Amino acid sequence: MRPHELVDYLRMTAVDFSPPVRSLIDTDFYKLLMLQVIQAKYPDVKVAFELIVRDKTIPVGDMINITELSKYFDHVHGLRFEKSDLYYIRGQDLHGLNMFKEPFLQYLKNDFRLSPYTLQRRDGQLRLRFEGTWSQATMWEIYGLATISECYYRSVLRNVPKDDLEKMYRRAMERMDRKIEKLQTEPGLRIAEFGTRRRHSFLWQEYIVKQFKKNLGASFTGTSNLWLAIKYHVDAIGTNAHELPMVLVALADSAEAMVDAQYQVLRDWESMYVKSLRIMLPDTYGTEQFFKNAPAWVSEWTGFRQDSGDPMTRGEAYLEWNKSRNVDARTKLSLFTDGLDVDPILKIYDRFHKRTKVGFGWGTRATNDFEGLLPIPHLRPFSMVCKVVEANGRPCVKLSDNVNKYTGPKEELPRYLKTFGGAGRTDDKVFV
């Protein structure tokens, strides 16, 4: 793919109907893994998701044509899983196990529909909400974010001259080449591409996946994007997300049940996938309390994912927890996924790779690093998420290891801190 091809596509989107998301498998693999659990165990739970733009300096609502955005959401809402999609999903056996069961595949074929959405512009920001059964609403997260992200950058670049756009894409390619060269100095690295939700565009994400496959060799473990994994014959990578404990904790009726709900997520996951994909995500309500309260069987899980707080202290906490359980950390995996770029990846790898298995999920800074390539504002990546906010009418909360990643009503914060504590939480700026 050459710069002029990316420019031609960008120009074409200004005049033709060009949905950023064209297939239901243009999503992160973990969403399907979670959907199977949700559909099997919680089919009647009602939820709502909402868009949260953490960076208030980004005028998302002013930049995007809301009529055009609605048409793209309507397009996604009308999509169905194709026969070929189901063929590939059925064949996913990354861990020597057919991960998707036949009743679930029949559900995708015959019954799966996305929930309705509501979209408004208010005070320069978008107000976006998806509401329905958990099975209907959950898949909107990635479709919604990827659509908004690409529409935003189309708008930012719409009036830039063609020659300048070609220069921008050429510089972005050169920037990625330099990043890959740095990574090639550590052949033991294991990196997956995790950048679907806040990508510059689908075509740019596709270019990045091709470059990783071509140049990183065994260091490239795969992509979270199922469509691209299928197209480029690489592994689809995914585990689980904060959404599961956020809903189960919200549904709990006592403080004790709230604490246990974190581990019910793991029990549900293990019952569906047996020993596959056993990567815990401990930071939803604080990593320290998660390890402190974890039942003995949790130490049998394959590893943990760090997604907030300081990666060095969180990584050390996991190693220390394994030591306290008489577990050899060299048999475990530490997966780092929080706002990474090349230099932090190399520093984290240097600190931990001789003491435990280490992996990285490289997201926004892989698929959307255009900051400074043109002298125009708002080209940088920014922090935008789509979080579950209600479950059966109850508010959903995420504390996080970083206080600036807190989501939920402010009035719920004291109750959650009383239940889970606030040990180990830091106050770090959120870039992406």
From TrEMBL:
<dbReference type="InterPro" id="IPR007229">
    <property type="entry name" value="Nic_PRibTrfase-Fam"/>
</dbReference>
<dbReference type="InterPro" id="IPR041525">
    <property type="entry name" value="N/Namide_PRibTrfase"/>
</dbReference>
<dbReference type="Pfam" id="PF04095">
    <property type="entry name" value="NAPRTase"/>
</dbReference>
<comment type="similarity">
    <text>Belongs to the NAPRTase family.</text>
</comment>
<feature type="domain" description="Nicotinate phosphoribosyltransferase N-terminal">
    <location>
        <begin position="25"/>
        <end position="149"/>
    </location>
</feature>
<comment type="function">
    <text>Catalyzes the synthesis of beta-nicotinate D-ribonucleotide from nicotinate and 5-phospho-D-ribose 1-phosphate at the expense of ATP.</text>
</comment>
<keyword id="KW-0808">Transferase</keyword>
<keyword id="KW-0436">Ligase</keyword>
<dbReference type="InterPro" id="IPR040727">
    <property type="entry name" value="NAPRTase_N"/>
</dbReference>
<dbReference type="InterPro" id="IPR036068">
    <property type="entry name" value="Nicotinate_pribotase-like_C"/>
</dbReference>
<dbReference type="GO" id="GO:0004516">
    <property type="term" value="F:nicotinate phosphoribosyltransferase activity"/>
</dbReference>
<dbReference type="GO" id="GO:0005829">
    <property type="term" value="C:cytosol"/>
</dbReference>
<dbReference type="GO" id="GO:0034355">
    <property type="term" value="P:NAD+ biosynthetic process via the salvage pathway"/>
</dbReference>
<dbReference type="InterPro" id="IPR006406">
    <property type="entry name" value="Nic_PRibTrfase"/>
</dbReference>
<protein>
    <recommendedName>
        <fullName>Nicotinate phosphoribosyltransferase</fullName>
        <ecNumber>6.3.4.21</ecNumber>
    </recommendedName>
</protein>
<feature type="domain" description="Nicotinate/nicotinamide phosphoribosyltransferase">
    <location>
        <begin position="190"/>
        <end position="407"/>
    </location>
</feature>
<keyword id="KW-0662">Pyridine nucleotide biosynthesis</keyword>
<keyword id="KW-0328">Glycosyltransferase</keyword>
<feature type="modified residue" description="Phosphohistidine; by autocatalysis">
    <location>
        <position position="242"/>
    </location>
</feature>
<comment type="pathway">
    <text>Cofactor biosynthesis; NAD(+) biosynthesis; nicotinate D-ribonucleotide from nicotinate: step 1/1.</text>
</comment>
<dbReference type="Pfam" id="PF17767">
    <property type="entry name" value="NAPRTase_N"/>
</dbReference>
<dbReference type="GO" id="GO:0016757">
    <property type="term" value="F:glycosyltransferase activity"/>
</dbReference>
<keyword id="KW-0597">Phosphoprotein</keyword>
